[in-house]
Amino acid sequence: MVVLNRIYTRTGDKGDTALGDGSRVNKDALRVEAYGTVDETNATIGLARLHAEDEMDAALGRIQNDLFDLGADLCRPDPDRDSEAKYPVLRMTAGQTERLEREIDAMNEALEPLRSFVLPGGSALAAHLHLCRTVSRRAERLAVALGRAEAVNAHAARYLNRLSDWFFVAARIANDSGRADVLWQPGANR
User: Fold this and answer.
1) CATH of domain 26-81+92-110+117-178
2) Can you spell out the DSSP letters for 150-180?
3) Mind listing the pLDDT tens digit for each residue in 44-58?
4) Which of 164, 178, 163 is nearest to 116 (CA)?
5) 182-to-48, 116, 169, 189 alpha-carbon distances in Å
6) Cα–Cα distance measured from residue 81 to residue 79, given in angstroms and rounded to the nearest whole number
7) Taking the domains of the chain in order of start, what are their residue ranges?
8) Residue 69 and residue 96 in contact, taking contact as beta carbons nearer than 8 Å
9) pTM score, whole prediction
10) Measured between alpha carbons, how far is 190 from 177 in angstroms, rounded to an integer?
11) How does pLDDT run across 126-162, given as a tens digit for each residue?
């Protein structure tokens, strides 16, 4: 259980922060950038949920919870040393990515194949989901870069890769199952 009885601690006033294992790093460290961008993705989902209803809202809520799991995973360095931790370490699992894949497949069944790229927009929900997609792509790029520099749970980047796909398909669903998609017209304004 998490208990937050004090919001500010002053421990990061000099530009460093604690990771999940207690070690301290600069606030602009790649690991902090990665899980910070996961948090930013979560905030964009909060905006999208203002326009979502029923099943879409519930699915976005599940993803928000997953993103807290993902942040916890990324803030804990060196997955190979998890057995040394005092408490169980929360890591992303294949099952979380597999759930996204099942949801993508189910949403995609209602869509006609694309014949052009989709411009971000259409309905308010679709526009917000496209923003979620682009921020999650940035989080993925940072997680991949982090994985080149340090040990990272492979399921973390895989989840982010699938998540941006989920947002793309969900945005098409939010655009009247693709009928209200705004399509790119190459060279239209030459």
Assistant:
1) 1.20.1200.10
2) S---HHHHHHHHHHHHHHHHHHHHHTTTTTT
3) 999 999 999 999 999
4) 178
5) 18, 10, 14, 15
6) 5
7) 26-81+92-110+117-178
8) yes
9) 0.92
10) 30
11) 999 999 999 999 999 999 999 999 999 999 999 999 9
